[in-house]
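Sequence design from tokenized structure. All designs in this work follow the same two-part layout: the structure record, then the generated sequence. An example of the structure record is given first.
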């Protein structure tokens, strides 16, 4: 037995070393947890171009319009709240259906707003589903020259108008209409645009 003392010593050393090394590695790997997912802060704007293929549609820069809506929300005091807005660009037939179904109107209109949550009634830190804004680029293009001047300014005005509706603004009474027009002017002025 004395001839093999080195074998037993080596075996015990090797077993001891591997045992503690594996325990250390296992604990080390388990201690590296993924970072906690931080909640989204600020507005989340989803823009969809839902115009039918083959229709006389107009180019929609989804990133540009998402940025404009987020900026309007921030200027309205919602820049640090988890607010979600969905913007839909639709063709004339879809807008006509929405206008008839929800507003009792005839034909396509330029913009419709469908509010969901009122941010004033939702506690801070809780996500706010502000609602949907629907824009018809064809109608916007047709009325741009007699309304806002050009297509880009017209779409900007319609988006600002829709977002203000989501925030509770209205134009049913003359004083409400004037207050809403003033807010639209303020927002457009930040982009170097003039509201007619």
């Amino acid at each position: 037995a004395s001839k093999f003392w080195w074998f037993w010593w080596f075996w015990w050393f090797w077993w001891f070393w591997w045992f503690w090394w594996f325990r250390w590695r296992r604990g080390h790997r388990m201690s590296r947890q993924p970072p906690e997912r931080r909640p989204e802060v600020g507005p989340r704007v989803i823009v969809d171009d839902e115009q039918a293929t083959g229709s006389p549609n107009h180019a929609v820069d989804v990133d540009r319009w998402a940025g404009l809506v987020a900026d309007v929300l921030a200027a309205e005091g919602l820049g640090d709240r988890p607010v979600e807005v969905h913007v839909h660009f639709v063709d004339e037939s879809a807008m006509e259906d929405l206008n008839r179904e929800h507003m009792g109107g005839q034909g396509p209109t330029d913009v419709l707003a469908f509010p969901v949550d009122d941010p004033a009634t939702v506690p801070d830190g809780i996500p706010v589903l502000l609602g949907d804004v629907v824009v018809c680029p064809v109608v916007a293009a047709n009325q741009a020259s007699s309304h806002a001047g050009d297509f880009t300014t017209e779409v900007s005005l319609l988006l600002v108008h829709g977002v203000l509706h989501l925030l509770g603004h209205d134009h049913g009474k003359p004083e409400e209409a004037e207050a809403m027009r003033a807010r639209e002017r303020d927002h457009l002025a930040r982009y170097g645009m003039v509201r007619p």
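The first strand starts at residue 44 and ends at 49. We note this feature because it recurs in several other targets discussed in the main text.
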